[in-house]
Records
---
Amino acid sequence: MNWWREFADRIRHDVPAGRQTWFRMGGPVRHLARPRDAEDLAAIVRRASAEGVPVKVLGAGANVLISDDGFDGLVVRLDAAPFRQIRRDGNTIVAGAGVDLMRLLKWCCGKGLAGLEGLAGIPASIGGGVCMNAGGRFGSFSDVVSRVWLIGDEGEVEGWDRSRLGFGYRGTNIGRRIVLAAELELVEEDPQRTRRHYEQCLGFKQRSQPLAQRTAGCVFKNPGEQSAGAIIDRAELKGASVGQARVSRRHANFIEAHPGATATDVLRLIDVVRKTVRQRSGIELELEIDVWRPARVRECAA
Ligand code: EPU
């Protein structure tokens, strides 16, 4: 019997989920589940894990590239109402994993709750943002997260305090666990001041990054203190292209997908950038974006 039978009304198969990513490209995902709530999610994850099916969560789709061969596992979308709740208790907020960061930011600005404005313009769901400690020069999730609730492979729910999360540059110890919700400690502030700060942070991004293009944000992590964008720029790669994928002229750590671009174009361009940077400066660039491919392709590449 197929493992997904008991969840049949909320799991679809061979879904072109690439359209739900910012890059809007890539092949089909084998299963796409939209659980009703945390309990349902736990049951689905438990079943899939028992069958050895790899599980991924698609948040805002801003940091993911699905290969042209698709992904042969289970992709979960946390867009049901229980995952999109925001609760407030004084200056403490509990936001579901499926809450859109920009929505939460605006909500907090309106209520005079400060602390998140440094994340303005970063496309993320709360779950995805916490998981990778998304951020930029004005701040990151680790500045405000005090606790998260997670689901493990066995479907068990755990509450982790910030000390256990191991926040680092664009990373945490969360691994394959799925974020259910995060608690954020904010501070009371004059709403107008909070909004001004939000607009300043957003303005900086608008001036220095190709926000109007189809991209997945920064492609590579910054190696140490240096900006990957500046390193790629120094390697004279701005404007370099493969097919319809092009290194942005505005910020070299962005790859723009022009009409007709495929995931293969983007992956080849990533290779070109890595090799050129390695030759020019000896620096090994590490991917910030998450590439989803079928297991057989992953085995060949290993
Ligand atoms: N620079 C260049 N050429 C470029 C890009 C940047 O010379 O093509 C120079 C800039 O002039 C500046 C320095 O590099 O002197 C740093 O650039 P920037 O301030 O844009 O910061 P970044 O380190 O390149 C980081 C984050 C961004 C975030 C910005 C701003 C990473 C990998 N990148 O970029 O995050 O928006 O700071 O806060 O951590 C993302 O994670 O998707 C992302 C875009």
Note: The chain has eight helices and 18 strands.
---
Amino acid sequence: MILKKTIIEKVDPIRPQKSVITRAAKIINSGGLVVFPTETVYGLGANALDPVASQSIFTAKNRPPDNPLIVHISNKLELDEYILEKPKFSELLIDRYWPGPLTLIFRKSPIIPNIVTAGTKYVAIRVPNHPVALALIKESGVPIAAPSANLSGRPSPTTAQHSIQDLYGRVDMILDSGPTDIGLESTVLNLLEKKPSILRPGGITREDIFETISVRPTLGYLKSESSSEKVISPGTKHPHYHPKAKVILLDIKNIESLEIELAKQILIYRQLKKSIGILGFEHSKLKVDMEILLDKDYNKIARSLFDSFRRFDDKKIDVILIPRMSSKQIGLAITDRITRAASQIIKVI
Ligand code: TXA
Ligand code: MG
């Protein structure tokens, strides 16, 4: 692809400077690409009503064309323009969690281009909870289609530096408001079938949803209206969140068994002359090349997970060993991202 001149601008995350937002909005309105912060991860935004601009998102991040984009709006009142109807439970959830890290799937209105929804009849929409994102959408006057602002297959960006690493020269502007708050992407929830189902766990937890609608969502994929079992959340089928290193998840509850297995893996990879990293709760008893300690607070683990992946890559670590974590609350999303990043899962019961 032809390289673009990328402007990088710092923006105050609480009171975004009007002059910067105006420039960014002009780029959106002229069909360009702007990387902007949200409360989850940085997004790679384009005018969602412009099929050519939306297409250029796919090119910039090498995204497979069958993986649809999330449309970001600034206010729940705008929703009706872009959808055919509101499914059961959606209003309860919208009132409680928008703006916030909850993406809902709707039947799309014809105004949403097919490229955005990867040819499906469904559109994913959320209102992000970040002053910069909201100011940009409002100033542009259009909904903004935005996947995470990383190259396809790389960990999602939680700082502007991560996006610069992946997308410099591929986008028109990168807005830098510092690290994002949640650090993992929004929850994608499908309310269009009999049972609500989580297509991607994220910032709003399964427990939060249950508390609001009194129905426990399943963890699953959507089927399309056709009789074939076509998945309509295609993002989940593509490989995701890979650091360059090989990630090994040690799915072991018992602490002693975990230590034995860790030691075994360290010996194996040391013999193979590989550099070894551990992302764990305790310091390792055996020497490894790089260690990042996990916080006891799962919200902090979520915030730093993708950054940790990239830090291991920066130090050219070949293998990252990670112990299993709880799947409660935000732990479900953390475990999901680690599982997707893992090329091997070692289970000891
Ligand atoms: O937190 C987030 O959601 C971030 C920020 C930028 O908002 N965005 C993000 O977008 O993570 P992306 O494109 O990296 O992930 C979107 C996910 C994919 O798994 C995709 O398949 C799914 O949402 N998705 C999008 N549109 C869909 C649709 N119409 N039906 C089912 N799944 C959809
Ligand atoms: Mg993504």
Note: DSSP finds nine helices and 16 strands in the chain.
---
Amino acid sequence: MILDEEKQLKKLDTDNMLQAISDFPAQIESCWKQMKSFSIPTHYIQAKNIIILGMGGSAIGGALVSSFVLKKSRVPIFVHRDYDLPVFVGSDTLVIGVSYSGNTEETISGFEKAGQLTNKLIGISTGGQLGSLCRKFRAPFFEINYGSQPRAALGYLLTAVLGIATKLGFIEVEDHEINEAIVLLKAMEGKIHPGVRAAQNQAKQLADRLRDKTPIIIGSGELSEVARRWKTQFNENSKQVAHFEILPEVNHNAIVGLDFPKKLSEKIFVILLQSKFSHPRVKIREQVTLQLFQQRKIQYETIYLQSATTPLNEMLLAIFLGDYVSYYLAMLNAVNPTTIEPINYLKDRLAASK
Ligand code: F6R
């Protein structure tokens, strides 16, 4: 199998996406340390709601954190993936603008407006226009110094938002929880890195089952946004169509839409991300949902993060596994996992139309 030939993988992965994927635990570790010296003005604690502005690979970190803190935070957290701002944004809102490049126009348009409405702004970026706006509004700016694609810097983008929410007391995350997550991630990597042959490698095996299929990833609770991350990594790294669904919502519509197009069962492959920490009724729903797939001969695989001890490290383990699967699928599709030609084309055309 090509996935066991490391030289072949290097030939396809000319921009070394593998390194960035494997850096995920190190990114988390380094960002968590950096956050210790990141200072945020004390009046930010008074925020009554939080909005995170971002798109694509820069939005997902905030979305993952918001799915994790939803049931724990004393203030609501929203992710806004669009131009401008929702009308509720005002002087009580903490606005966190996240853009790896710092130049994503949707994010910039909202951040510019936010500067007129609230004095609680934070930017997370490598620089760009977002960096300039933070200087203009005298807002704290968390600078990322890591050369990669935005989606490959998730360890930074996610940990920065988590660190801000913790510093402001909206949630509690202790150092030992981060350290434990890093240990578990490194242990997982030992089992799924390219040096582990396909016969023993869960990520390689799953990628192989996804060849020529449309993956549909289903997640619930803290793993809902992880399902989206798997989908977007299949899109951008593997250049493959993919969709995601959220449980229990999936039980109220998607399970009815399994009869057409004809021969659907040959085309799709369901990945069910099962959380140790999900609602007991969700666990029953998962079993019944799988029965419905069996009855229709739809192929599926369940992912259960055996080593997870908390919702936070379960979420991080699930992200890491998905990133590796998307990488191996890119290799099977014989594509460079780093390139994103259609996104560049689109951004160039938009820039030309200004
Ligand atoms: C690229 C990627 C994209 C970008 C998005 C926004 O790796 O994942 O989804 O994240 O186009 O750009 P930035 O992150 O620069 O704001």
Note: The chain has a mean pLDDT of 97.
---
Amino acid sequence: MNRELAGIELVKVEVPLRRPWSSAAGTLTTRESLLARVVFSTGEGWGECAALPWPTYSPEYTDGAMAVAERYAVPALLAGSVSSGSAVAPALGFLKGHNMLKAGLEMAFLDAELRAAGKPLAVHLARCSATGQPPAGSVPAGVSIGLKASTGELVDEVASFVDLGYRRVKLKILPGSEGEMVAAVRRRWPGLTIMVDANGAYAPGGPARAAEQLAPLGAHGVACVEQPLSAGDLLGHAHLARLTPLPICLDESLTSAAGVSLAIEVGACSVVNIKAGRLGGYLEAVKAHDICAAASVPAWCGGMVETGLGRAANVALASLSGFTLPGDISGSSRFFDCDVAGPVELSPDGTVAVPSGPGLGVEMDVAALGRFATARSWHPRLPTGLAASSGQRS
Ligand code: OSB
Ligand code: MG
């Protein structure tokens, strides 16, 4: 089909969270997020850049992503007259880094392309995968619990999610309180899948000290310890993996499919968190998934507190057969009372249905978008011969 790209709109939103959510990266009380709308003669598509409001999880952050999008990424996509999801990464290959922005723009192009073709994202991603397996119809749900002031507060919060049907929790941990926290949750729920995420908090002591500090978790059957050391410390993680019986999972360290291969090869992890934003796109995430599947390395789909757009795309990704562990896949209501797109809902059996509609399979709530938008800019594709480097602000 011949699709004409008319332009790209960037929309910064600020969606209130039901409750503050804290991690080592900071405390979110709203989800400030950069959304992209790509407009074609055949219809439109939406994507979400997973960058947080601050450069504390990775170097990207919302306002930085907006600046790079306006100045470099959007002009390149318009000048190249990009018309499919698979053409986005090659068109943006000249930009170093900015993976979450690239993934958000790719998501919008995939959504537009697949809506026009009447095809769900999960089916498309499964066809892109080398495993040859069809997508699942639903995926097990999981929640990431933020840092809590006390173990009592943590147990109460876990109880509220277990009561809703969640079967897997990921607890944010810091050196010192980890043993008591995990023991308390395990005591109350003997069969729950528990993962822990350190976001690099064990880096100061180094691998040997981290192995000692994490040792008490061994008694409580945690499915994995995510990112104990720094993002750049692949060899430190390999060292730690030899010192501890706990399965080590990497998040921040993995920013490409090739990096996933390397981490597995050097023994830096035995479990992989696949986040499309961090990897630079959903198609790159499929490649990372295929590498894990071929190496029989357990993988799961990570989240970034996304709105319904990124959430729906993550559920589609998580439906691939190589996602053998439950991920950060929660219903919209886990974070939001009112979302900009949806619905992504938890079923009482603890699963989330994979969207079956075309594209992302969720609809934009235009009224909510209008309420939560804090900045919008429209970038038309100009006729050849006119400079296409600056957009109109509205
Ligand atoms: O480290 O996995 C992380 C959210 C924002 C930034 C980093 C991380 C997270 C989460 C996932 O823990 C939360 C979710 O979307 O469920
Ligand atoms: Mg993490």
Note: The longest strand covers residues 5-23.
